[in-house]
Write a sequence for this structure.
């Protein structure tokens, strides 16, 4: 486990490749952009903690995926780059593949797209576990939120489904 807040370093060769494909660009006004990312993370975490409007596991997954995006953006900014609008989810995928197998990262992104587009139920345990693992690379608090708000409810659904099908 990492400290509560950690900045990951992105490999120089990967930065060069992302720059070549226009998926990242040199950051302008790094200090302002870092402050905006921190503010976004703060708002996302407030949404997770809100007791007046509790999130479903699917909504929590989407919020925590956004947190991961903010962490990756912050890591890029700390190295002088920012994500462009050129395939941002593929950019995220290429960066986080340093910490998780590509097939798991693809599942995680596919789960996000399914939740955004059509499916309203979080169903892929592997996607949640991958998101938890990646969040842990950046901030243990976000990883713990993912376990509590997404993984535990998903495990309860699987257990209750198994019980009802055996009856």
């Amino acid at each position: 486990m990492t400290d509560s807040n950690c900045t990951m370093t992105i490999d120089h060769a990967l930065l060069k490749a992302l720059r070549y494909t226009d998926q990242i660009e040199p950051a302008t006004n790094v200090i302002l952009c870092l402050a905006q990312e921190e503010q976004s993370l703060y708002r996302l975490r407030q949404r997770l903690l809100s007791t007046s409007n509790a999130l479903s596991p699917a909504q929590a997954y989407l919020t925590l995926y956004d947190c991961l995006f903010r962490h990756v953006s912050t890591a890029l900014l700390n190295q002088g780059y920012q994500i462009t609008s050129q395939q941002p989810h593929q950019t995220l995928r290429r960066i986080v593949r340093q910490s998780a197998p590509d097939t798991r990262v693809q599942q995680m992104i596919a789960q996000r797209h399914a939740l955004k587009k059509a499916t309203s139920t979080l169903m892929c345990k592997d996607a949640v576990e991958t998101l938890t693992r990646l969040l842990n690379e950046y901030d243990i608090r976000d990883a713990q939120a993912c376990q509590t708000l997404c993984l535990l409810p998903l495990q309860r659904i699987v257990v209750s489904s198994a019980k009802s099908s055996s009856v």
Summary: Residues 40 and 46 are 10 Å apart (CA to CA). Confidence is low (pLDDT under 50) at residues 158-167. The two ends are 40 Å apart (CA to CA). The longest strand covers residues 24-26.
